[in-house]
User: What shape does this take?
Amino acid sequence: MDDEALFEVTVEQRDYERIALIADIHSNYPALMAVIEDMEKRDFDAVINLGDLVGYYTRPVEVLNTVRPMIDISVMGNHDWAAVDLSNPLFKIARPAAQASLKFTNPLLSEDHKKFLLHLPLKTILETPYGNATLVHGHPVTIFDYVYGPTTNLFIESIENALAATKTDYLFVGHSHIQGEHHSATGKIFVNPGSIGQPRDNDFRAAYAIIDLKNKKTELLRVSYNIEEVIEEVHQCHLPEELGARLKFGI
Assistant: This one.
């Protein structure tokens, strides 16, 4: 593969008023399709993906073939990179269940899929007439670290520190699989749309968000889908049973 364009930080100037934010689909095709059906009822100008299209679940090809035509801007997730190159550090530090899923995913990806994933930027600065946003999978500085804390106060502290490290009006991230928004006293806004494919905020429903940049409003949205179908696929593909079991509880 040509490595010349790998791991870019990009700037996109777009005339967007309303954007749909998606993240952490993780090859969960039934969840993705349920979200797409819900999105068709709503008004927005663009779809932005915050990483981890693949990993964990069983249908990476269907997910990639579906989302590529509909995504306007996308950044790289840690599973996106690890699924393409099993020799890289992100694979080596993954938990056993994640490693098993990445080993399952890698041979299913075509060279075109791998090139697409590997050439996603690590970070994008979105410039619009209604404010600018930093788009990144995990953290605006250390990229694949988490904006997260085990308590509410520590979580807010982590968000505030991440916002302080950005120069934009908004910070949009995924990675933690925890849906939420936070408005800083400085006027900056943090949004995590949550995970479509594997929520971890004690709500089993697939998560995404729509941001009204013009009016500075956020809709945090949840969609039910057939979890049992995904659990059965995990079993049939001989992936770790915990990957299916956790979906029932959103953990």
Remarks:
- Confidence is low (pLDDT under 50) at residues 1-5.
- The chain has one domain: 9-248.
- The chain is about 30% helix and 20% strand.
- The first strand starts at residue 9 and ends at 13.
